[in-house]
Amino acid sequence: MTLARCRRDRGLTTRQAASWLGMSAASLNRSENARRRFEPVEVGAALAAYRATGAVRAQVSALADGPQAGGWWETTNMSPSHELAVRLVERDARSVVEFSTTEIPLVAQVPLYTRALCWNRPVDTHAALTRAARRREVLLEPTQPQRTLILDEAVLRRPVGGPTAMAQQLRHLLALVHGRPITVRVIPFKEGGYRSPGNCAVYRITDKPTVVHLWSGTASGLLDDPSHTEDIEKSVDDLLSIAATPAESAGLLARFAADHERTAGLYP
Length: 268
Hints:
Elements: H1 2-10, H2 14-21, H3 25-32, H4 40-49, H5 54-64, E1 71-75, H6 80-92, E2 95-100, H7 111-118, H8 125-136, E3 146-152, H9 153-157, H10 163-179, E4 182-187, E5 200-204, E6 211-215, E7 219-223, H11 226-242, H12 246-264
Parallel strand pairs: 2-3, 3-4
Antiparallel strand pairs: 1-7, 2-5, 5-6, 6-7
Helix pairs in contact: 2-3, 4-5, 4-6, 7-8, 10-12
């Protein structure tokens, strides 16, 4: 079967692949031997995990009636398989550049901030906190890609959860910048308007096509066709060209954190 061949080409045993895909080795064995049907989301997760080529992706997608060759989209909340595929892509990446339009990226959120984001949304708070905790785990791995977070100044000034929560969140960002391979780049108000690609993450992988993750509150998609990813990469590069330098951005983080602390009455 094509997916089994992709798994072997990637150098994964059935047990290893099953662990990555969130299923049992027995289920994966049955699916590879045509004794169990691969669900569409499982096909998409496997294609992402095995880094299948465009031609193979098209062949498997046509057979499974699952994700299309140009990408893999899901609406509403991300399924566990889709979320796992994002994590596997990130594991292969040498660098990640992420832009979030209205909030601190999930990987860098503190629980108080995550909880505050849920209060006026139809979201299960416990599920959101669990997902954020899983996302933060990547920062504990001994090998992780160089990560750049691009944030608009408005994201840092908006007092999500109140000034105390926001001060804690910005101090956490500063700690990450000083302790891990993470860079924060702030787009200051003085730059005026700019073209936004929306929430996105660009994963650059050695000897592999770049993968782009796009998401909103109602949809999430993985793209690896250069005809789809190049324009997004250009938009992200344009954002970096107007963003403050890493040192200037760290200074802005510290300044805005102090502003929130003063508002909260923590400091005179």
